Every structure is written in structure tokens, then in C-alpha cells.
Amino acid sequence: MIAERRLEKIREEVLKLHDVAKRSVEICLEGLRGNDEIRRKLEDLEMEADIIHSDIDYDCVTFIALFQPVARDLRFVVGMMKTSSGYERITDLALEVGYYYCYDEELLSLFEEMRKNLLEMFKVLEDSYAGSEVGIVHMLKRHDNVVDECYEKAIVYLKNKCKVEPVLVARHLERMGDILGKIGSTVVFIESGKRIWIK
């Protein structure tokens, strides 16, 4: 059926955007030491994310206009628009992180712990897209809590040093965790119609 094919196309586009956002998080900390090649890759990923996000929005709005979906299909389309926005924002934040500089090993260690947990959150979401909702809320909360704890440690560490860029790196990485938690909430809402908060 035409409607199902269009929904599958939207799903595939969101999975592609998920992958782009994940790749941007994987490499963003490499830019902190002034790696211009990584910064160019982050710029390319951010541009790719913008294009995919725009395509998803167009496809979702077109689907709503053509098929006037209700119930699960409407939740899916609206949820995919929100999810797409979240992933696109993550690539923006990763690009910003890559533009900063940091040579403080203690901070880099905290940032690495944050990145590790963000990538685990991406993995939880990948599993949920493949049909496994087992523990999604608990697992996303657990990883987001670690990201939040690292953020708080970074802020305490930086309090006396007054270094602005590392504070922003910590904030952006923490924000990515919040966005991934919101995406997880959307996945649960699409499947069950239940509103949950992962924070």
C-alpha cells in the first residue's frame, strides 16, 4: 500500500539521520585539539543532517496532507518530525563542540565519559527502532544520569578556572543526552501512546 511505503521511507530517513547524528558525536571531541580535518567532517555531517531533516519534514507534512492519518500513524509522523529535529540539533551541537579547544586532560576524561554514554543512548535507540523496547526508559535514564553527573563535575572543576569553552562543551554534551532522552520518549509514545519523561 502507498501509505505504508511512505511511512517506511520516513522511518528510513530518520534512521539515516540517527546515524549522521551518531557519527557527529563519535568524532566531535577530536576537534577539541584543533583537528581541522575533523572540523570539516563535522561541517559535512551537519550539512547532511540539515538536508535529511528538511526531507523528513517535507515527507511528513505531505503524508499528513495526503492521507489524513489518525492514531498510531499520526503519532508516528508527528513523532518522526520531532525526532528529526532532535537529531539535527545534536549535529549542530557536535559541530560547535568540535570548534572549541581543550587540552585539560581531566576535562577531556569527563567529556569522553559523556560521549561514551551518549553513544550508548544512541545504541538503545537503535535497538528500539529495530523493535526492542525492553528497558528503553531505564537504560536511557541511566546513561543520561551519567552524562548529567559528568556535566556537574565539569562545572565544579571549571568554577575556579573561568574557562568558558570547556563549560560550553560540557553543556552541549549534556544537552545531547537530554535530546536523546526526548527521542526515546517519542519512540515509546509512537508505539504505545503513553507519555513518559526520560530525565
From TrEMBL:
What Pfam families has UniProt attached to this entry? PhoU
One biological process term from GO is: intracellular phosphate ion homeostasis
Q: Which InterPro entries match?
A: PhoU (IPR028366), PhoU-like_sf (IPR038078), PhoU_dom (IPR026022)
Q: Return the SUPFAM superfamilies for the record.
A: PhoU-like (SSF109755)
**Origin: domain of life:** Archaea
Domain PhoU span(s) in chain numbering: 15-97, 112-184
The record's section on PANTHER family has: PHOSPHATE-SPECIFIC TRANSPORT SYSTEM ACCESSORY PROTEIN PHOU
User: Protein name, please?
Assistant: Phosphate uptake regulator, PhoU
Q: What is the lineage of its organism?
A: Archaea, Methanobacteriati, Methanobacteriota, Archaeoglobi, Archaeoglobales
